[in-house]
Amino acid sequence: MSSLVDVAREAGVAVATASRVLSGSAHPVAAATRAKVLAAAERLEYSPSALARAMVSPHSRLVGVLVSDIVNPYFSVIARGVDDVATKAGYVTMLSNVDRRTDTELGRLRVMRDYRAAGVIFAGSGLIDDPHLPDLVKGVRQAREQGIRAVALADRTLGCPTIAVDNRAAAHDVTDHLVSLGHRRIAFIEGPPGMTVTRQRREGFLACAAAAGLADEVRCVPGGFDHEAGHAAALRLIARRPLPEAVVAANDEAAVGVLSALRQAGIDVPGEISVAGINDLGVARHVGLTTVSLPLYEMGAMAARHIVDAPPGPDLAPAATTTLSHRLVPRETTARRTPDAVRLQGGAGVD
After folding, report:
1. Where does residue 207 rank: exposed (0-12), middle (13-18), buried (19+ CB within 10 A)?
2. Considering only CA atoms, which of 123, 220, 144 is closest in space to residue 175?
3. Of 21, 50, 77, whose CA–CA distance to 293 is shortest?
4. How far is the CA of 312 from the CAs of 65, 146, 147, 281, in angstroms?
5. Which of 77, 123, 275, 298 counts the highest number of beta carbons within 10 A?
6. Handedness of CA 253, 174, 334, 206 (dihedral sign)
7. For the stretch 157-176, what's the b/e string if a residue is b when 16 or more beta carbons lie within 10 angstroms of its beta carbon?
8. Mean pLDDT for each 10-residue chunk of the chain (351 residues)?
9. CB 186 within 8 A of CB 244
10. What is the 3-state secondary structure (H, E, C) of the chain?
11. Entry pTM
């Protein structure tokens, strides 16, 4: 592999001159000399390292993506959107797991600043009453002043542009779909405790129930965002009669866990109980789950474009929020409430 010294020798110039030409430095170099260096680099198939370019440039071509749970397919779709746009623009995506910890996010942000990243995308939800939020807001401000673009993909008030979905409306709409099918006794499987997205989706569910006059007939059950949490929540519902007529889970993974538990208990879905989720991930399409489709790929792609298309210098973009639309996707796990369903459940029953 050819080195910078080889290129300089081939072109008959000083190493410093070759470096200025190949790094894109603003230092003046004669056009003829520049042409000789570029021709020599092409003949020798010279390719400067990304680290070397970063050392003489304000920023590297690195885009950091901070995710709450790296195994959650929700973040995989977002990351694909980021990476597709970043790769086409000549950037590299670095995915980092933060385990829903704001202090870990702050540490990763500091690393991104040390590496002179082009931008950082905060893909996960924030925490309610987060004691570390002021420190993270300060870190984001310092990064933006340094010229690092920052984008949040959830409502977190980080002081940077936000690209998000309306989680309350998404939960409201899927609940309203169940109400329109005649279901009244509806259970909501919550997400992880303490997360903003959990609260928002629960609020959307309860708002729809209240508007439909069902506030006294619905219930919220502790859960989570994985299959196991949904399965455990469904077992608690099965153990306490009467069974709900329908179940909304805070995301698709938990909804699939609910489906698994109900079917293992011999309960027909949707004959006895309708089940729905939120997100519209691949697993939802595979099992025919009614859900709300969120534009996760588009969120990632838009965030990446905000970074790769940005002009050099401090990040002065307003901390505005762009809310993308969602859509209800009815599938086979929900059905209209019928007299047969009431008979199968044995009527209203007692607790």
Report:
1. middle
2. 220
3. 77
4. 20, 10, 7, 36
5. 275
6. positive
7. ebbbbbbbbbbbbbbbbbbb
8. 81 87 76 87 73 55 94 95 95 94 95 90 95 96 94 95 98 98 98 96 98 96 96 96 95 97 96 97 95 98 96 90 97 88 48 32
9. yes
10. CCCHHHHHHHHCCCHHHHHHHHHCCCCCCCHHHHHHHHHHHHHCCCCCCHHHHHHHCCCCCEEEEEECCCCCHHHHHHHHHHHHHHHHCCCEEEEEECCCCHHHHHHHHHHHHHCCCCEEEECCCCECCCCCHHHHHHHHHHHHHCCCEEEECCCCCCCCCEEEECHHHHHHHHHHHHHHCCCCCEEEECCCCCEHHHHHHHHHHHHHHHHCCCCCCCEEECCCCCHHHHHHHHHHHHHCCCCCCEEEECCHHHHHHHHHHHHHCCCCCCCCCEEECCECCHHHHHHCCEEEECCHHHHHHHHHHHHHCCCCCCCCCCCCEEEECCEEECCCCCCCCCHHHHHHCCCCCCC
11. 0.81
> How far is the C-alpha of 259 from the C-alpha of 52, rounded, in Å?
53
Quick one: which of 193, 181, 349, 173 has its CA closest to 273? 181
Question: Backbone dihedral region of 279: left (phi > 0), alpha (psi from -120 to 50 degrees) or beta?
Answer: left
Closest CA to 149 of 112, 118, 116: 118
**C-alpha–C-alpha distance, residues 248 and 171, integer Å:** 8
Q: How far apart are the C-alpha atoms of 323 and 3, rounded to whole Å? A: 48
Q: Which one-letter amino acid corresponds to residue 92?
A: V
- The encoded tokens of residue 172 equal 């409201």
How long, in residues, is the chain?
351
Q: How many angstroms separate the CA atoms of 137 and 159, rounded?
A: 6
HSE of 216, CA atoms in CB hemisphere, 13 A: 1
In DSSP terms, which residues pair with 275 in a beta bridge? 247
Burial of 104 (0-12, 13-18, 19+ CB in 10 A): middle
